[in-house]
Amino acid sequence: MQATLIHGRRSALDIASLRNQSGRLRAVVLWLVFLIIVVGSRVGAGSAQAALPQPSDDVSSWFEAFKSDATDEELYRFLYAMPKGGDLHNHLSGSILSEWFYELALAQSKRGYRYYTRVTINNCRPYGGNAFVENPYLMLFVNVQESNYEKLSTCEKEEYLPLDELNPQEKEAWLDSLRLDKAHEGRDEFFQTHWQRMGDLYLNPYLAADALVLNMQAFGAEGLMYMESMIGVLGFIGAQGQSIPPDVVAQIYRERLQDADALATGVEVRLQVAILRFLPGANEHLRYLYDFVSRHNDLFVAVNMVGREDNDKGYPLRFLDTLRDLRRTYNNVRLSIHAGEVDEPNDHVRDTLLLGADRIGHGINLITDPDTMRLMRNGAYLVEINLVSNLLLQYVSDYSQHPFPEYLRTDIPVALSTDDRGMWDSNLTDEFFVAVKEFNLSWDEILLLSRNSIEHGFLPKTTKTQLLVRYTTRIEDFARQIAARPSAALSSTAQSYGFICDRYQLCEW
Question: Name one Pfam family in it (predicted).
């Protein structure tokens, strides 16, 4: 009995102790659950709330605090959501993501087009052929449409497959062939293989028009308001191989831009045409395209000059007499010309301004020309800055070498642009992310870049004023979001691409 009582007493004490411990344990569990819910909600919001400073009406100060504490993902989501001005320097043919190109090519079957690509080389041609032509033989994934495929020899036809019959490995290699995605691929790969591989794909004006709208949609999603795209009008062919005149090509573009999906983007669009500066007939091309732009000035606003500047046959002053002659007749054509996209110092930027250019594409080596830099300070001439392009094409080996911050902070007008975003696998947010991350941009500098990209656009004065008002309204609304609830200023739909994944490890969305 005693033993039983003692045992019973011990049991009661043990039970009381266990109850006390259980109560403490329950409190700990509830606290952990609370932490999991709070932290999980913050992580689910893109880790946004964890680093955001308190709301503030002073956006400039808020942004400085945000930069210092934000993760790369938070900064990227903020910049993606931020309203932007324009992209003044993009080549449409180089701005088509590989996946878009593939889907667009297959979709053209509705218009009778079918495309083939070279997946093997059977040495069908004799020794001693010219390997330096526009479409070299010894190159995989060169694309031809069916009308040109049928002209090939039986041996060469066996080297090709229809795009819609590629196996998964072949398709992935085809997609990779149209972008710079490997360490050994740089300037030579870009200039000497990418455009050649593209082949007939870009000679379809309907595909080009659809690609233009895809870019409008993607740019619109990241807050862009204006896009000025370099686009082709010469050399286009129909499904049966027939030539399509440039005036017809212009009408195809014009009509596509009036479709509901294009208008829904809210992105204002104007187009440029470009000449390949080092070709023997470049001056004749310039004359033709100058007249073309003048006649289609509702949509086409400028002539550009493209191509490697280290090919001295395209030196700027080659075109001076022709342009002076054209200006005697035409009063509505603008010039935005690639210049200074070269390694060595030279006078290309200065000479390009003499040609009458209002904007300079790239302008990397302007930094070596102090007299022209002084001329451009607080002036009317803008430099179109392409940070991703300049790194991937090895005009700078590291962003510490890039002259962009020197131009910006010595009051040379600059704006950020994407160049050939499809081949870089990037977007305009990437350009802003690099600029903020590498050069510590202030909020006022970000606003200046966007305003510059509208103010220096080749637009009618009324349209430009309307865009500036729209931009001011949108950026003020964005600032009010920051003042009220900063987490709302981080996009939940931001999309990262290959460049930002490879260089900054932002890969999961």
Answer: A_deaminase
CATH of the domain at 288: 3.20.20.140
Pairwise CA distance, residues 182 & 412, whole Å: 34
Print the domain residue range for 339.
75-96+203-503
- pLDDT band of residue 503 (cuts 50, 70, 90) is very high
Q: What is the pLDDT of residue 1?
A: 35
474-483 tens-digit pLDDT: 999 999 999 9
CA dihedral defined by 466, 469, 473, 476, rounded to 10 degrees? 150
Q: Are residues 225 and 160 in the same domain?
A: no
pLDDT tens digits for range 369-423: 999 999 999 999 999 999 999 999 999 999 999 999 999 999 999 999 999 999 9
Residue 364 lies in a domain: yes
Position 7 scores a pLDDT of 33
Same domain, yes or no, for 89 and 173? no
Contacts of 293 (CB under 8 A, 6+ apart): 272, 273, 300, 301, 302, 303, 332, 333
Distance, in Å, from the CA atom of 285 to the CA atom of 155, rounded to the nearest integer, reads: 36
- Number of CB atoms found within 10 A of residue 421's CB: 29
Domain boundary (125, 145, 178) is at: 178
Q: Give pTM, 2 decimals.
A: 0.89
| Among 167, 235, 164, CA closest to 195 | 235
Query: Same structural domain for residues 168 and 231?
Result: no
Based on the fold, state whether residues 228 and 304 are members of the same structural domain: yes
> pLDDT tens digits for 192-207?
888 899 999 999 999 9
338 and 324 housed in the same domain: yes
Q: Is residue 117 part of a domain?
A: yes
Look at residues 498, 493, 55, 463 and name the one whose alpha carbon lies nearest to residue 225: 463
Number of domains into which the chain is organized: 2
Q: Write the CA distances from 266 to 84, 89, 282, 299, 472, integer angstroms.
A: 13, 19, 36, 16, 15
Q: How many residues does the chain have?
A: 509
Tens of pLDDT, residue by residue over 233-260, are 999 999 999 999 999 999 999 999 999 9
Q: Does 312 fall in a domain? A: yes
127 shares its domain with 218 = no
Yes or no: say if 82 and 222 are a contact pair by the CB < 8 Å rule.
no
Check whether 292 has a pLDDT greater than 50: yes
DSSP 118: E
Beta bridge pairs of residue 383: 360, 414
173/236 same-domain check: no
Residue 68 has a CB neighbour count (10 Å cut-off) of 9
50 or 509, which is more confident?
Answer: 509
